[in-house]
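Subgroup meeting minutes
Present: P.N., E.W., G.H.
Scribe: E.W.

1. P.N. recapped why we're keeping a running log of single-chain structure predictions: easier to compare across weeks, and new members can see raw inputs and outputs side by side.
2. G.H. added today's entry (192 aa).
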Amino acid sequence: MQLSTLDSPHQTVLVTSTIPGEGKTTVACNLAFAFSQVKKTLLIEADMRRPKVARALGLDTHPGLSEFVSGDIGIEQCVRQPADGSSLYVLQSGKVPLNPLEMLSSHRFADAMESLKAMFEVIVIDSPPVELVSDSMVLSRFANAVLFVVKADHTPFPLARQSLIRLRRVGAPVLGAVLNYFDVEKAHRYYG
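Output recorded in log:
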């Protein structure tokens, strides 16, 4: 990941998948933890309809992205550190707006992203699956790289390919895919 965009001083990585249950939140959290070892990193929970980052990190619900974008609360009250002394910060989804796609498409969201890019060296965005809603395609315009998570022996190939085509149509900078839940022993038995 780091070597793929050396010329970009502020890296924003969007993590998405085709359908729910492929492990994109886990990949996003682990990627954010890895980046935070060397850079000031923000993990944004942008899957507002089914937020899972707080649960994955053991955090209580807290004001977050929707409150920050609406201007109700400043960024200092929305961003949290899951561990003392860590350079990982988390911006939870916050209160679910009536229309999350409308919020993510707004000028206020674009302004919020610009201010966050000025504060953090790396931003990892956990976004909804491509085939359920269009949020990931809207969010991809803020990313330098898109990681596409695919669950091994689960996600149908034609559906995953369709999702990648949809991302490419909007000009998403797809960097690559992560094959998740891959069972090495099962594959070894199958191929001999």
